[in-house]
Write a structure and sequence with these properties.
This protein is mainly α and about 240 residues long. About 55% of the residues lie in helices and about 5% in strands. The chain is elongated, with a radius of gyration of 23 Å.
């Protein structure tokens, strides 16, 4: 069983869940696949903007990581992995629509492959009726295709993948950095450390402090040859592996 490293500290995006999900819906759900697809739909729709929010069948079929999670609980052995994942997905969606969590419809003039789902909420019901009246068509309004793989990794994962193993002291330092700097700033500092072959938290911390004191101008972001030489020959040289 894969282990979970825990929720990261610092600022992370949160997905709101309506209270009736816990008080009314959760006690009714008796299938893990249905629970997963219901939670996924709530997360996915939260990534959208505007009143016309929907989840396309193709969106679900394109999210490899989500399908892998469904495949792990499918319990079907006679089909190929692709067929098993598709069968598990359709079963979970059928359960969620029969339950009334999701509303399913095929846009006018489209086929079953173009099936879309709406949350059974006032906004979702209104969007569904508007679509059925041909007032709008899915796919024409800049639909965001959110997938689990695209979630920004937390800085602990970034550090392990790009700098080195975590230690208790490094973990504490990363938590402090999360509270002091935006995630994209920390990520950029790590990438600069990797580019300079300076895989050290002390080096990264120096960059962050420098940016905090002097600002990040275009010269910093371009990572020019002059900047690289200054890091190698200047006050950060002790932390660079030559």
């Amino acid at each position: 069983m894969p282990s979970f490293a825990g929720f990261p500290s610092g600022s992370v995006h949160t997905t709101p869940l309506p209270a009736p999900f816990f008080t009314e819906l959760l006690p009714q759900i008796d299938d893990l696949g249905e629970l997963k697809v219901s939670l996924y739909a709530l997360w996915f729709l939260d990534q959208q903007e505007g009143p016309l929010r929907y989840l396309a069948l193709k969106d679900l079929q394109a999210d490899r990581k989500f399908l892998e999670g469904l495949l792990a609980i499918s319990g079907v052995d006679s089909l190929s992995e692709v067929e098993q994942a598709r069968a598990a997905l359709m079963d979970a969606l059928d359960r969620a629509t029969r339950r009334g969590t999701l509303l399913r419809a095929i846009p006018p003039g489209k086929t079953a492959d173009d099936t879309v789902f709406f949350l059974n909420s006032p906004r979702g019901r209104a969007a569904l009726q508007s679509m059925l009246r041909n007032e709008w068509m899915p796919g024409l309004e800049g639909h965001v295709q959110a997938v689990l793989e695209l979630a920004r990794p937390n800085i602990f994962k970034l550090y392990e993948e790009n700098i080195g193993p975590l230690t208790p002291l490094i973990s504490d330092a990363l938590r402090e950095a999360e509270a002091a700097y935006p995630p994209d700033v920390i990520e950029e500092a790590m990438r600069k450390a990797v580019a300079a072959n300076a895989r050290s938290w002390r080096y990264i911390e120096k960059i962050l402090r420098s940016w905090k004191e002097k600002g990040r101008d275009d010269q910093h972001r371009r990572d020019s040859e002059k900047d690289s030489r200054r890091y190698i020959e200047g006050e950060l040289s002790d932390f660079i592996e030559h």
